[in-house]
Amino acid sequence: MAKILRMQAIRKRFGPVQALSGVDFDLEAGEIHALLGINGAGKSTLIKILSGVYTKDEGTIEIGGAPVELGSPRAAIEAGIATVQQHPELVPDCTGVENIFLGHEGAKQGLFARLDRARMRRAAEALLKRFPIEIDLEARVGEMPAVDREIVAILHALRHEDIRILILDEPTSTLTEREKASLFQMMRTLRAAGIAIIYITHRLEEVFEIADRFTVFRGGRNVATLTSKEAATRNVSIPELMLDEAAVDLFPPRDGRADGEVLLEAKGLGRHGLFSGVDLEARRGEILGIFGLVGSGVDELSKALYGALRVDAGTLKVKGREARFRGPHDALKAGVFLVPGDRRTEGLTMTADVTFNTTVAHLGRASAGGLLRFAANRRATEKLARDVGLQPFELDRPVSGFSGGNQQKIVIAKGLYREADIYIFVEPTVGVDIGARAKLYALMRDLAKRAAVIVMSSDCDEVHGLADRVMALYKGRPVEVADVRASRDQLLAAGIMGARAA
């Protein structure tokens, strides 16, 4: 196949950090090419150079055989390159059509100009004719399922007719298996239409399902480019390529104590229309795992346990005493800390630096006499940043400048700084690479030695591999699974079909 993109000897340095060291990367017309690597490996830097956010220090870029300089996002789009970020910026109250043409509404001329909605509808219909996919673009984006929002973001990127290269950054991170299948079908449709796709993912099992080729970055270099068929035939270990070492077991050995003190207990907990009848116990010395797909009520349950969502049924006890949280402040005082699933809007102050974000949840510890303890806070943040494996180790950088996986590490560091008795982790490793996941799982296991840990995730393997006791949530109702010895398939059936484990 013809090369649509060729990047050669690309170098990029940020101060003392050499982010890319003479990287080569190519893309064929009409292929899906997965770009893999641990956080900090250099893949995000390469993509930002390709999308015009960063300028390269050295090297050449050719598109369709012609050299190009991509000095801005506009220049990238004019060269035929479009990017869909991990968290697309969509307007929830606008329809799919309106979001696709946001900023290009084609307002009619005149003193009382209006949006040219008829033109936008015609253009949207033309897009769907070119890239057939079933979606109601007249629905409001805020009411769409996650996969339809992702499709709207892709169509927004493809509204320019000359787009030949599409970059998708972690598009499946919040999708269910069924939604992922719908997105993959659209990606195959785009491939058939001649669009080349660069697909960034930390879900390595997806590589063999959807990608034609994959490239692995490590330490700012391209260490391997293989076809999926070739890698499968040779039994290539992608984790070993990423880590430059034999793949270790992701999950630490279980050593939970079934007789530990009950620190958090819920009986018949419910919120109308969201979840109901939830009974659970979280004990010191163990990890309780709760598996539930997107929309199962897991996220709402986590907020209820943290006081961010009022319940209308049931009781909650903390350390044996009934608790009625009026808000997260009460939960924090009681020793409950939530690491939320949406780190950007619920877990971080994106414009503030790492030290601020790490210490902000415990101002009593971070200050003395009404003044912040800058030196002590810095030392504490340095230790926690090392514990969670933050890369790059730049504590003065705004958290918006870190990758999604590293932002997640900062939220977890914030929880560790709080020194709570009960930790609730929701989707704790979304966007986190395989090496960092092993480190975070070990950290959670170590944390469970002194606290009660609850892990809520839509990743069945994560819950099954990490927890001492497990349960599932299906359409807002709890489905009991006897214990972690229940098979992974039983837990999956409980969360997907509501089937009880035998």
TrEMBL record:
Pfam families (UniProt xref): ABC_tran (PF00005)
Keywords of the record: ATP-binding, Nucleotide-binding, Repeat, Sugar transport, Transport
Listed PROSITE patterns: ABC_TRANSPORTER_1 (PS00211), ABC_TRANSPORTER_2 (PS50893)
All residue ranges annotated as the ABC transporter domain in the record: 5-244, 258-500
Entries under SUPFAM superfamilies matching the protein: P-loop containing nucleoside triphosphate hydrolases
UniProt name for this protein: Sugar ABC transporter ATP-binding protein
Signal peptide region: none
Homology family: Belongs to the ABC transporter superfamily.
A GO term for molecular function: ATP binding
